[in-house]
Fold these 2 entries.
Entry 1:
Amino acid sequence: MDRRFDTRLQEMLAQAQVSPEVIKGLLSRLETFVLPFTAALAEPEQRRHTVEYLTGLLSKLKHKTGEGIAYLHDQERQGLQKFIGLVPWSDQSLLLTLARQVGADLGEADGVIVFDPSAFAKKGTASVGVQRQWCGRLGKKENCQVGVYMAYVSRKEHTIVNTRLYLPKEWTKDRKRCKAAGVPRAVKFHTRHELALEMLEEHGAVLPHTWVAGDDEMGRPADFRLKLRGRGERYLLAVPSNTLIRDGDAAPPQYAGRGPHPQNPFVRVDSWCAALPESAWTTIDVRDGEKGPLTTEAVKCRVRARTPTGGTGPDEVLFITRERQADGTFKHDYYLSNADPEVPLEELARVAKAAHRIEECLKRAKGEAGLGDYQVRNWMAWHHHQTLALLAAWFLNQETRRGKNPDPCADHTAPPGIDRGRDRGTPEGQRPRKAGTARHALAGTERVRPVLLPSFS
């Protein structure tokens, strides 16, 4: 191995280690972390099961299912499985607490709320919401469930704060099938965009933000962009390359002297982009990356998009980024925004990059917190598991920031706001508490995963 790469490898391995002082007191911190969430649960048994389930989601279990988690705790599986799939506790109360914590800990005035559908491949037809539909993870249509996720991104960190299960029309039309899967009678068909607007209505107020972002599935419908505009939200949404736009900055065709004044024709955004001269592009340093400055080239223009009915939409800003690939070609991303045309390219680029953070959030939640490990079939169990997995991911987020900013007093238990110090993560309001010494599923090794957390045993 080249000595340069060997040196870099040793640096990376060193970064993947956490000292015993950082790990010490982990169980006590988890128990304290859970308290604001379990306050909404009526029964002591439910509160106990919440801690047990979170412990299992944070463990090294290969399959983080109710059965596997129960056996991890040397219990019969029925108790935890009933807690997840049969006991009617409010997952929405826990998610609201989560959003409030995220807003308080990570909130910045120019934060970004990001929406993204994510699919889970599933066999059979009985599991709630399963049908043959687009599965982004596999890159094709497949039998799967689809959840719509809402994440919050700031310069401090990023995490998922809410989710909804997308229920296709074929399901909502079949009441017998819905009843068998435990879908409440009040649940009607909602598009993925309507689910996103519901989550924005619920939690947008507690998440300081200036922007709403999403991929081209979210940005494709003009109606979704119009509804965000009507709510006073500023958006930057990716759109497909075949989106039709009319250039608002180009001079219109010459007037012939009679009839209506001619307008520039509608063109595809990729065709409009291909006709740009090289001088139109501006190179932007978006942020520091692991391998050096993260740069992109960008351009913007005032446009109006074609509506599905053949009309012309309101004024928007077309924003395009391009990045050179290994083979020398460019990868282009296209966005539409209702921002003021004078918003700097640097700000638009920051938001575009922030929107991609939700992929990191989903990867972390699936890989570290068991988001996709469930083996449940009914409506209640799906939402309960997803909610607890998002809480586990948020705990990992807090531990990651704690590991990056170790503090002499960080081994003591503290309120949820421990990482909200004014100066580089200095904890506020700490209350020392002696850590327990009992053997527990979270007690274990010093080696950590890529997010700087211990590989729980």
Entry 2:
Amino acid sequence: NFTDGRVMAVDTNYGFLYTGNPNDIYSQMRFVITDATSIRDRSGRRIRLSDLRPGDYVRVEHAIFQTMSIPPQTTAFNVQVL
């Protein structure tokens, strides 16, 4: 599964990446970033979670399951800045 969206927030303490509209809770998604998650810039070079900034447009490859919480949460496998 893939989700494209704008980075809304980055939580480097807990390893979360939030995408969606900050003014619409129902458009948001929380991705769990693990040590196995690959994060790459536009050129395909590996970057850290802390290098992502609100407003960046990303494509996230993620697990097919998600929690029923608001916002939903799932595990990210790959994050690509577009």
